[in-house]
Amino acid sequence: MTDRIATHIDGVALNLTNLDKPLFPDGFTKGELISYYVEVAEAMLPHLRDRAITRVRFPEGTAAGSFFEKNAPAGTPEWVKTVSVATSAGSVNYVTAPDRATLAWLANLAAVELHTPQWRTTEATSGPMGIVLEGEDEPRATTLIIDLDPGPGTTPADSARAAIMTATQLAEVGLVAFPKTSGNKGLQLSVPIAPTPASEVYTFALSLARLLTSSHPKIFVANMSRAARTGLIFVDYAQNLASRNTVCAYSVRGLNRPSVATPLTWDEVAALQPETSLAVSPGEALERVHSLGDLWETQMPTPDSPELPEPLT
Question: What are phi and psi for residue 159, nearest 5 degrees?
Fold first, then answer.
């Protein structure tokens, strides 16, 4: 097993360790994880920019358990950029990732998954303990996220139908949704919006979930109880809270095999069949970026992004 390799990425000195160590049961190694994140960086970094990153780390591989990490770990290099966020438990010093070197450093820590909130640090107010998550100074979200989590007994075709119906409902109020796989079993829709207080975005997402479930009770459920989800698609509206986060586009997921949260076209969503696999390997994700570019490039919020409508009824 490779012990340590000294290298430079964009002028930053890095010591990479145990590159031959398998992180997934299929043999996908830490070196391959680092290589993927460096190669996908051009497409991924715009979606990470100015966002506090929660990491899911698998130090001994995905078969041996994981832990969520919010604070920058001990020994974080001085060149790694961080941002402080005020929480009920105190100030949390999150890592941010503006460059390829930071992505490589995170992957070297076996941070397989990278999750971000719907707000950017540029749309947040800092107090004595860092960015304030609640009250008048709460962050302004620049995206609305709709996580469509398939319950037991559903198929990718069911997820596709739910995604199309949700996007249609959003289009009726002037919002454009961009789909991606969650990297696991479901689909997620991201909607660029003008900066809006996170609590208002949460309220809108909750109203959408309630409207979908009341209009289509045999397709959607908004009840967080897992026992209520069999045969239905759970509309997870809570990921819009300022304190919550969602897996970033192009992040690897810590499953039995490495699968990437991958932007899709709506034609691809419409073509999903019951037996279709939503798993996209890191190699396949890179091939898609090389041939299609970043399908979410136009998803980035702009000064022309629409205002969030009033809650739906």
Answer: -65, -40
Strands 233-236 and 220-221: parallel
Q: How many CB atoms lie within 10 A of CB 65?
A: 11
In angstroms, the CA 93 to CA 104 distance is 19
Q: Which helix (H) or strand (E) holds 271?
A: none
- For 305, phi and psi rounded to 5 degrees? -60, 145
Sign of the torsion formed by the C-alpha atoms of 111, 113, 119 and 123 = positive
pLDDT in tens, 139-165: 999 999 999 999 999 999 999 999 999
4-292 maps to which CATH number? 3.90.920.10
Triad 118, 119, 120: Cα angle to 5° = 130
pLDDT in tens, 160-204: 999 999 999 999 999 999 999 999 999 999 999 999 999 999 999
pLDDT value at 234 more than 60: yes
Sign of the Cα torsion 255, 41, 16, 52 reads negative
Neighbouring C-beta atoms of residue 112, cutoff 10 Å: 26
